[in-house]
Specification:
Blueprint (H helix, E strand, L loop, with lengths): L4 E5 L12 H17 L5 H17 L4 E4 L6 E5 L1 E5 L3 E2 L6 E2 L7 E9 L6 E8 L11 E8 L5 E2 L16 E3 L9 E8 L9 E11 L2 E11 L5 E3 L6 E2 L28 E6 L4 E10 L9 E9 L9 E4 L8 E10 L2 E9 L14 E6 L5 E2 L21 E4 L4 E2 L3 E9 L12 E8 L4 E5 L3 E6 L2 E3 L4 E19 L16 E9 L13 E10 L2 E8 L1
Antiparallel strand pairs: 1-12, 2-35, 3-30, 4-29, 5-28, 6-28, 7-8, 8-9, 9-10, 9-11, 12-13, 13-14, 14-15, 14-16, 17-18, 18-19, 19-20, 21-22, 22-23, 23-24, 25-27, 26-27, 27-28, 30-34, 31-34, 32-33, 32-34, 32-35
């Protein structure tokens, strides 16, 4: 993960007052955007250079390399093994953020960021009040909360926006007006942006009233502190499709959709891609039915930007195929140890006729480039719904692209509903927390008692230290070295390997009488022998 860059969602707007006449409105937007770009601020080249250095840092993995066994990218071959998906554990205090304010009839999408220097947690979350709001711009809002430990949260009275006359609110962003469904707000904290006013970046979905016509699409905002937000423009930077032609602007909606399909829709998952050095949004879209009807099932598109303002034509990257029982509602993507990992929101609905339970758990998917995805764990959800009656997370999970990486664990925050068709006036919703021991997404286990994993040749030197993330409480792990050609290295064989036992995130790999200082630098195969043990990751440290 790129240090200092995390996902977050919110809005911005140096151009707030636009003429209601659509032609004049468009002209004002163009002029204002041009003037805004001419202000004294670091050049795009400077910002790009900074992020290039940052991306290089992220690839270096702090001087080492960690291999996750989510896929076999680093594996030469495995023998006698099986790959087993692990599941995070829900926190006993869930929901860690619950409905407590009048504008929080329902709580959904969220982004959480932890400042490494201070340890302070910041959370931006979507709150829905619907028809209870006197002002339509308050129907769906972005709220703010902080925490010292990530479990106990405070909702500060900021006084930025009122709600039905109440000024003491924690609301930091309101809708544009019009249909006003400020959905999918996602935040990214970019501490390396030379422009301090833009270090907090938000992307979200909203409607804009243009001469009585509701135009939906992607909007963005910027902030220096994550609290005071400025919308860049009410006009969508990418026009989208809501997927419901029976609602305003009724059947005319299709005339206002982009000519290039597919379009983005009302789920925004934001990340920084260190491989391509781009801001990236993974968004919901719609695919057509076999009979040609539109808005049949939800799928995922990807769009990217160098400056957070100009976004590429959305590219379709994930669709529900014939093996999927339902739809793909969202894709929360983050980058870790050279892999793009995705919490895929699996919505159990059919097509037009719906059907299914309406539940939406999270499936773990992986990619090496962010475009082509592998889904080997369709039968077991990474983060399942609880299915426990009216529990806040009984039915639908809205995952986040910003897991928090701590020394011992990874924290996943998610918004949740009891079910797709919940009675939001009566049912409890909120933000939940689930934790996973560090890097333990997938385990390689013996099918019977013994197994081995041989890795592709990697560069080793006398300065290296090898550690394994493994649970060998009921058995042992041994590691041996082979040449790049596959010959065993004397003094570093299985027989001379010191058995690893117990359960640890960082078992040191050792041999009898020899250390890495005795090893000639070069490329080697690593072979891990498992006896009644689970292997989660292997790290080459410097």
């Amino acid at each position: 993960m790129v240090k200092g860059i995390h996902r977050v969602g919110i809005r911005i707007n140096p151009v707030e007052q636009m003429n209601q006449n659509i032609e004049l409105k468009g002209a004002v937007f163009i002029v204002a955007a041009f003037l805004w770009m001419l202000q004294e601020r670091p050049s795009a080249m400077d910002a790009g250079d900074t992020r290039s250095a940052l991306s290089a840092q992220s690839h270096a993995q702090a001087g080492g390399r960690t291999i996750l066994f989510v896929d076999d990218d680093a594996v030469l071959y495995r023998a006698g093994t099986r790959r087993v998906l692990q599941q995070p554990r829900r926190h006993a205090a869930n929901p860690v953020i619950a409905e407590t304010r009048p504008w929080e009839v329902a709580i959904g999408y969220c982004t959480v960021y932890r400042d490494e220097a201070s340890g302070l947690y910041q959370c931006w979350y979507q709150a829905y009040s619907g028809g209870n709001a006197d002002d339509p711009t308050r129907r769906v809002v972005v709220c703010y909360a902080t925490s010292k430990d990530g479990v106990n949260w405070k909702k500060p009275n900021l006084g930025l926006y009122d709600y039905n006359g109440e000024r003491n609110t924690n609301i930091v962003l309101i809708g544009n007006g019009g249909r006003s469904v400020n959905y999918g707000a996602s935040v990214l904290v970019d501490q390396f942006d030379p422009d301090k006013l833009r270090r907090y970046k938000m992307a979200y979905w909203d409607f804009v009233d243009v001469s009585g016509r509701q135009v939906p699409g992607l909007c963005v905002a910027f902030s220096a502190d994550g609290i005071q937000w400025v919308k860049y423009s009410k006009a969508p930077l990418l026009q989208g499709a809501y997927g419901d032609p029976t609602q305003p602007p009724l059947s005319a909606e299709s005339r206002y959709e982009p000519t290039t399909r597919p379009a983005i829709s009302d789920v925004i998952d934001l990340m920084w891609d260190p491989g391509r050095e781009r801001f990236v949004i993974y968004s919901k879209t719609w695919i057509d039915a076999p009979d040609g009807r539109r808005f049949w099932k939800r799928a995922i598109v990807r769009t990217e930007s160098k400056d957070f303002i100009h976004w590429s034509v959305p590219q379709l990257i994930m669709v529900p195929d014939d093996d999927d029982p339902g739809q793909i509602h969202g894709a929360s993507v983050f980058y870790l140890h050279g892999i793009y990992l995705c919490l895929l929101q699996r919505l159990d609905f059919g097509g037009f006729d719906r059907g299914g339970s309406g539940n939406m758990p999270a499936e773990l998917a992986s990619s090496r480039d962010g475009f082509h995805w592998h889904r080997p764990f369709r039968d077991k959800m990474f983060l399942p719904v609880t299915g426990k009656g009216d529990s806040f997370d009984a039915g639908c999970l809205w995952t986040s692209s910003t897991p928090i990486h701590l020394p011992e664990e990874i924290r996943f925050y998610y918004g949740a509903y009891p079910g797709w068709n919940s009675d939001l006036e009566k049912d409890s919703t909120g933000i939940g927390l689930a934790t996973l021991q560090r890097d333990r997404f997938v385990a390689i286990e013996p099918q019977d008692d013994n197994a081995q994993v041989t890795l592709k040749p990697i560069e080793l030197s006398t300065l290296n230290r090898l550690t394994v993330n493994a649970d060998a409480a009921g058995g042992e792990v041994r590691v041996e070295l082979l040449t790049a050609e596959g010959y065993r290295v004397a003094d570093f064989t299985r027989e001379r390997s010191i058995a690893i036992t117990g359960d640890s995130l960082q078992h040191p790999v050792k041999w009898k009488g020899k250390t890495m200082a005795n090893l000639a630098p070069g490329r080697y195969q690593l072979r891990v022998h498992l006896s009644n043990a689970k292997l989660f990751a292997l790290t080459v440290e410097r």
